[in-house]
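QA checklist item 7 of 12: single-chain prediction sanity check.
[x] sequence parsed
[x] length recorded as 349
[x] structure emitted
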Amino acid sequence: MREVAIVAFGQSVHVRESAETSEVEMLMPVLHDVLAQTGLAARDIDFTCSGSSDYLAGRAFSFTMALDGVGAWPPISESHVEMDGAWALYEAWVKILTGEADTALVYAYGKSSPGDLREVLTRQLDPYCVAPLWPDSVALAALQAQALIDAGLTDERALAGIAARSRTAAESNPHAQLRGAGPAGEPLVAPLRTGDCPPVGDGAAAVVLAAGDTARRLAPRPAWIRGLDHRIEAHSLGVRDLTDSPSTRLAAQRAGAFEHPLDTAELHAPFTSQEVVLRRALNLDAADATVRINPSGGALAANPVMATGLIRLGEAAARIHRGASDRALAHATSGPCLQQNLVAVLEGE
């Protein structure tokens, strides 16, 4: 199997609102940044793949407009996923593995500020039995949190501790929207408080992938993708155990996460209760002292929907690039209550 690595990562400064900035204007500095890190020009990229959501943009085929950020010339080989950019990275990784490309540019963006994000995300639900009830994303996360509390797996004080740790870690992240531990916040949907929930915001991210010797030429210390897998839970919430995530566990197993010790884990956990589920599924509770969990602050510090999962991969890769990590796990999720899960294992040379 071909060696594939993340050789560059860039992201915007995530903000609560970017009304004066279009998706293209938000993307262009990020795309220029990752290309400059590698010294590549647009003509040197063999494949381009993006992740976004037309529901957030409020118009069909909105990703075609964002292509203006890549440039109209030269012509490109391009694809798009209506998913978080982590799944766009998966497509680009497969493209390189097949030998159809040696380099790939992957980007994702999301502007949540123009609409009601909690309402928009109800469109992910079963359209016949659940969506007509309009349960929003926070209400569903609260059901998951209550299930964890009822099972004795966490409590409100522990959830507040997760939020404080994440946002304290974000103090050293210049791209984060929220920095510094604050109070638990006001009750939102019991048992969740505002501090247990992610900020609503706008942002973009991009990575460059490269194969083998090309990666070694482009980056002093490439972040090699040693394994990558994604799995899905049943769509119906009523047939799932919300206190567990077997799809995350299986994806991690297939990606080789349990074969050797990790030192970093970037988990896509928009709600504090979801970190509890992920840590149990990934056996991270026992390794808490040796594994840095969300040193970037994670989704609790910045949550540009459709880019947050790609950022987890990028943040894990960036730690390897600068020598702060040798073996890292990156996780991305999509759908209500951790319905879909992707796990990647990254290593330095």
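[x] summary fact logged: The radius of gyration is 19 Å.
[ ] second reviewer sign-off
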